[in-house]
Amino acid sequence: MHTHHVANGHEVVQLLFIIGFSLLAVLYVGAVLFTNRNYKKWPMYRTICWCLGLLCASLAVVGPLANLAHEDFTMHMMGHLLLGMLAPLLLVLAAPITLLLRTLSTNSARLLTKLLKSWLARIVTDPVVATLLNMGGLWLLYTTELYTLMHDNSVVSFFVHVHILLAGYLFTISMIYIGPVFHRKSFMYRAIVLILALASHGILAKYLYTHPR
């Protein structure tokens, strides 16, 4: 009975992701078509990056790979690479904030710009903070019982996957500047943080090799 409820819960989660990613795809393409009538044509490669990014994220949380990930750690890591690394990179390359600013009215765009200039945006887009959110989340997931819990609880699974995608996106935009960036850090600063992040990821990988899930 417990297994049946867990399976149903995961099916609901997958449906939520399908709806969410489909909505994001429609909104992005709609914004491209809308703004192309008044501005310079939006680069096609950015639209392709957005769609491919959503596809990568979808493959990680919906379908055969997502189902196998509950039982096979190798498949789980495949999903992690798609959801936490490749998808965020592609989504950032799609420059969604720039497209959103093109789409909004002048007043709404000013409000968004004000938010992007805020102290909160300064904090969360700092490479150190973004790295802590990204790598800290992974250490918490793989060194505690959270990993087991996410496979037994569909609500936990949903929020873990959302965190992985958003933290990966935040980490990427803190490292590479595409679109409007109001709190820039030097190349050296970002390079040092990136090296430390890679070191942390490497240590975690070695830990998992010696302490298999």
What descriptors fit this protein?
213 residues, mainly alpha, 11 helices, disordered N terminus
What does this structure look like?
- This protein is mainly alpha-helical.
- The chain contains eleven helices and no strands.
- The protein has helices at 2-35, 44-61, 64-68, 73-93, 96-103, 106-116, 119-124, 127-143, 146-152, 154-175, 187-210.
- α5 (96-103) packs antiparallel against α6 (106-116) and α9 (146-152) crosses α10 (154-175).
- The protein is globular, with a radius of gyration of 18 Å.
Task: Walk me through the topology.
Elements: H1 2-35, H2 44-61, H3 64-68, H4 73-93, H5 96-103, H6 106-116, H7 119-124, H8 127-143, H9 146-152, H10 154-175, H11 187-210
Helix pairs in contact: 1-2, 1-5, 1-10, 2-4, 4-10, 5-6, 8-10, 8-11, 9-10
Quickly describe the structure:
This protein is mainly alpha-helical.
Q: Which structural category fits the helices and strands?
A: mainly alpha
Strand percentage:
under 5%
Shape: globular
Termini distance?
25 Å
- Largest beta-sheet details: none
